[in-house]
Amino acid sequence: MKVLVIGSGGREYSIGLALQRDPEVEKIWFAPGNGATDQLGENLAIGDYRELAAFAKEQGIDLTIVGPEAPLVDGVVDIFQEEGLTIFGPSAKAAQLEGSKIFMKNFLARYGIPTARYIETDSFEKASEFIDTLEAPIVVKADGLCAGKGVIIAPSRDEAREAARGMLSGEAFGEAGSRIVVEEFLDGYELSVFAVCDGKDYVVLPAAQDHKRLLNGDKGPNTGGMGAYAPTPLVNESIYRKLDERVIRPTLAGMEKEGMPFTGVLFIGVMVVKGEPYILEYNVRFGDPECEVLMPLLKSPASELFYKAATGRLAEAKIEFYDRYAVGVVMASKNYPYKSSEPAEIILDEIHHDELKQNSHISFAGVSRGEDGKLYATGGRVLVCVGLGDSIREARDRAYMLVGQVHFAGKQCRTDIAYQALEE
């Protein structure tokens, strides 16, 4: 099987790693890929989706997997399907679940899916009136895509009003903030749950927990994610059952009823409050860095999961996961998430310890290959050190042992990934 992966981050690198160990996969292309994906397959400098579809047709590519949200919202799936190509991901219509927070919140309300009390508006006055009815902290969200940064948790009503004003004026997020959602803050613990869907059927992956804040103890600014682990013991059978009955099934039924059946990854941002799951948000792709810890837990061939989902045949698939744990620690550049950093050469120590060699790996993200052939840290989140183990502690220890083998100027990472599970 020939596979094309669209995207350039650690998520796409991790999907590439899973495909590489699949005996069915003959060749992998990445569009555009990063400085390390060329070790797994071939990088393509084709940005136009129609040109990319023509390339896929010409090369006889059997399956395309879309990593990031922007191409999905832009309709890359529709373009490939028009050409009769098999592609994993939702249509542009279905991708509104992530592309518009207003669409998503109204969809949840229509189908009685549990979520926080909210208002959607383009009026500062209406937003301000609703803010007065809420207790702080208060959540303010830009409607459109903001690369994971369009959500502000305001510690006071005045700061919530400032956030709303900044978004609606266009100062904060441009056009993406021309309409906003203001909602009550849910106090509980957050989970990332992923369902791979084919329109009707679905497979739920082991639940993960992401660490959004820059600093230990969940302090500092929000980031794209500083680490993750899976499966999390914070989910029990009761929560899985409630998500199944109250969230995933009504979502797939509702999307089909509205003429936009959902195929791809439904990423469910869950807040558990006193044992009850509430939906914070939907995304329509794998989370990053959650994907980096989920892919190594996939026991079944990756091509089977993605291909059967893309062709509406998940009911035929027997998808299995290893009964193990994975912990991923993000290593970020010096100035992340405030501004870009100077490129820095990445030096990897040779690993002599067999146990570490066999139970850990790096998923590369913000890296480029220099003219000298060396790998350089050029992005904000540079790479993810992933450790595997029979317990969360063992996986965590291996991930941090690997962190100690990676060197570049200004490197930073959290030292407490998976702390909530280890405190249990």
Summarize the structure.
The chain has helices spanning 10-20, 49-59, 69-73, 76-82, 96-99, 101-110, 124-131, 157-168, 237-257, 290-294, 302-310, 354-358, 392-403, 419-423, and strands at residues 2-7, 27-32, 42-43, 63-66, 87-88, 118-121, 138-142, 151-154, 180-184, 189-198, 202-204, 209-210, 213-215, 219-222, 227-230, 263-273, 276-283, 325-332, 344-345, 347-348, 360-364, 367-369, 375-377, 381-389, 406-407.
Walk me through what this model shows.
With 424 residues, the protein is an alpha+beta fold. The chain has four domains: 2-92, Rossmann fold (3-Layer(aba) Sandwich); 117-184, ATP-grasp fold, A domain (Dna Ligase, domain 1), CATH 3.30.1490; 189-316, D-amino Acid Aminotransferase, Chain A, domain 1 (2-Layer Sandwich), CATH 3.30.470.20; 326-423, Alpha-Beta Complex (Glycinamide Ribonucleotide Synthetase, Chain A, domain 4), CATH 3.90.600. The chain contains 14 helices and 25 strands. It has helices spanning 10-20, 49-59, 69-73, 76-82, 96-99, 101-110, 124-131, 157-168, 237-257, 290-294, 302-310, 354-358, 392-403, 419-423, and strands at 2-7, 27-32, 42-43, 63-66, 87-88, 118-121, 138-142, 151-154, 180-184, 189-198, 202-204, 209-210, 213-215, 219-222, 227-230, 263-273, 276-283, 325-332, 344-345, 347-348, 360-364, 367-369, 375-377, 381-389, 406-407. It has a five-stranded parallel sheet with strand order 3-2-1-4-5, with helices on both faces. It is globular. The mean pLDDT is 96. Belongs to the GARS family. GO terms for molecular function: ATP binding; metal ion binding; phosphoribosylamine-glycine ligase activity.
